[in-house]
Amino acid sequence: MEFRELEAFLVLAEELHFGRAGERLYVSQSRVSQLLRSLEGRIGAPLLERTSRRAELTPLGEKFLAELRPAYGALQAAVDHARATVRGVAGVLRVGFQGVIDDHLATAIAGFEERHPGCAVDLTEIPLADPFGALRRREVDAAVVLLPVEEPDLTLGPVFSRQPQVLAVSPRHPFADKEFVTAEELAGCPLIGVHGSAPEYWRRAQAPGTTPGGHRIPRGPTAGTLQEGMGLAAAGRGAMLLCRSTAEHQGQRASVVFVPVTGLPESVLGVVWRTEHHTGAAHAFAEEIAVAERQA
């Protein structure tokens, strides 16, 4: 099996255009076609259906893509990790994050930069409404996002910062004077959700539609950023679920009250990267996150 054939197929599966695939691979369009034909000859069936303008994956091509991506990513990661071991991790590691940089993440970043002084960490805040977009646009090498993560083209690394959830409400909200509220008390309390390109399963996790007991939680307005959600909560438009560290980072406000919630799953963060592009620096950063989690 020729590695270049597999690479050509993966790029074609993304671009669905022979010309653009050739530009990314630095080869001619005819060379891309030749590589694909050779791969299809080895397999014994077409992987893409060609038209004059674009290409479409066949059912076999879709199945082959789903099975190939993780294996290709693992192979590339092994090569990158070996290179990093020999040469040392250097350059810039672009890390995206949602919410705030808590003590756990700050410790991991400090540990990474101390262990790899030749590699600086460049931090970028990821919009609440688009947890995976920066990775797919290749704006960051790794991202720290709220779980769950069920994306087929992304790999979930170490998980950390398990924290109880709190509810951000207006001082005029019926829950504002409570010491805590139970998950079942959320029935009848509109929750502020997330709009944008985030997958439905992810948005549902941040603003569930039912209590653990099965009672309906009404949908409130949606926000695209944390600050927009906090503004809606302050205006009394609904309540917003946050992890404890994010609430603590917001500090004491006259316009918002934070009330602990019992009976809900903990909020959890995870390190995520593109399966087909796992650099040695990203691998080293994930290891540092795992070390910080063990020491927490």
From TrEMBL:
SUPFAM superfamilies: Periplasmic binding protein-like II, Winged helix' DNA-binding domain
Pfam families, per the entry: HTH_1, LysR_substrate
Family: Belongs to the LysR transcriptional regulatory family.
GO molecular function: DNA binding
InterPro entries: LysR_HTH_N, LysR_subst-bd, WH-like_DNA-bd_sf, WH_DNA-bd_sf
Name of the protein: DNA-binding transcriptional LysR family regulator
Domain HTH lysR-type: 1-58
Keywords, sorted A to Z: DNA-binding, Transcription, Transcription regulation
Entry coiled-coil feature ranges: none
